[in-house]
């Protein structure tokens, strides 16, 4: 005899994150007669598009391979009425997809906007789409624990980012909408830790990049050739020493697109080793570059 276990009826659904994916999920659930509950650690919708001009000048962890590194808040923002969590958005960031291809259903971008909207316009677009979801959302609240109860429901423990008060609630289902690219990755390349120790601030990550001005006159290596690596390299090379070196492991997804500044950027292979004594970087093909001031990881 075969026994069948009836699945529980899903009514209440928790959504972790109030960015684009989270708010779309909430609207879809509402259209099906379900009740969503969004938990968002920031004080507004928009997720990663919430630009934070504040950044940091040095990294605490080099190398950094831990994907579970706790999300970072802007220094001194905890204890304030609305803590601010660091975003990887930089000043000149624009979308890399035309606005007509990234719209939500029946919600077009303002036709007056440029083809590739800037980060502020993109954030405002997401927030406009999210209107009406405030009643289903707990802002300034992060999920700290998620447990399956009796194989049927989910118990979620959340924490208020201002008061640190915790609370537990039970849901029939959970949607993870926390996004990508929130934790910086710095690979364990030979000599990297000592290089940073001797030359503080020389090892950096694109999450904390905001403007190119700080790279004026410096010898720079940008590691990575995906969207952010290509874009940031094209900005920095306008003020840095020429050439700017772009270290690439492979041709990447944008291999068929021309460099934005080919006369100012030199493509080099992966970094094999750092020599901190004279700020030398040795690449996997044996070539060497000396007196490197900044290595910016877009990884």
TrEMBL record:
Ranges for the region named Disordered are 62-81
Q: Does the keyword Ribosomal protein apply?
A: no
Keywords for the protein's UniProt record, in alphabetical order: FAD, Flavoprotein, Monooxygenase, NADP, Oxidoreductase
Q: Which Pfam families match?
A: FMO-like
Q: What cofactor does its activity depend on?
A: FAD
Q: Does the keyword Plastid apply?
A: no
Q: Which GO terms describe its molecular function?
A: flavin adenine dinucleotide binding; N,N-dimethylaniline monooxygenase activity; NADP binding
- Which InterPro entries does the entry link to? FAD/NAD-bd_sf (IPR036188), Flavin_mOase (IPR000960), Flavin_mOase-like (IPR020946), FMO-like (IPR050346)
Q: Which SUPFAM superfamilies match?
A: FAD/NAD(P)-binding domain
Family assignment from sequence similarity = Belongs to the FMO family.
Q: Under what name is this protein listed?
A: Flavin-containing monooxygenase
Natural source organism: Orbilia oligospora (Nematode-trapping fungus)
């Amino acid at each position: 005899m075969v026994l069948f276990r009836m699945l529980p009826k899903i009514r209440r659904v928790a959504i972790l994150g109030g960015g684009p994916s989270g708010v779309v999920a909430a609207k879809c659930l509402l259209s099906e007669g379900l009740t969503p509950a969004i938990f968002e650690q920031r004080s507004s919708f928009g997720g990663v598009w919430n630009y934070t001009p504040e950044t940091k000048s040095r990294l605490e962890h080099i190398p950094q391979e831990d994907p579970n590194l706790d999300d970072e808040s802007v220094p001194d923002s905890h204890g304030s009425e609305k803590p601010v969590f660091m975003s990887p958005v930089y000043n000149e960031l624009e979308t890399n997809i035309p606005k007509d291809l990234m719209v939500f259903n029946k919600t077009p971008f303002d036709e007056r906007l440029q083809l590739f909207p800037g980060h502020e316009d993109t954030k405002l677009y997401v927030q406009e789409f999210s209107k009406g979801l405030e009643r289903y959302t707990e802002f300034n609240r992060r999920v700290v624990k998620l447990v399956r109860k009796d194989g049927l429901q989910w118990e979620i423990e959340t924490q208020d980012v201002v008061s640190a008060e915790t609370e537990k609630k039970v849901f029939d289902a959970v949607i993870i909408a926390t996004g990508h690219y929130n934790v910086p990755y710095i690979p364990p390349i030979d000599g990297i830790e000592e290089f940073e120790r001797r030359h503080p601030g020389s090892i950096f990550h694109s999450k904390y990049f905001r403007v190119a001005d700080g790279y004026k006159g410096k010898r720079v290596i940008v590691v990575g050739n995906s969207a952010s690596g290509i874009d940031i390299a094209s900005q920095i090379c306008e003020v840095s020493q020429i050439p700017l070196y772009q270290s690439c492991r492979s041709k990447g997804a944008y291999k068929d697109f021309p460099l934005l500044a080919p006369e100012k950027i030199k493509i080099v292979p992966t970094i094999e080793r750092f020599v901190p004594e004279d700020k030398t970087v040795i690449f996997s093909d044996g070539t060497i570059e000396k007196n490197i001031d900044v290595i910016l990881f877009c990884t």
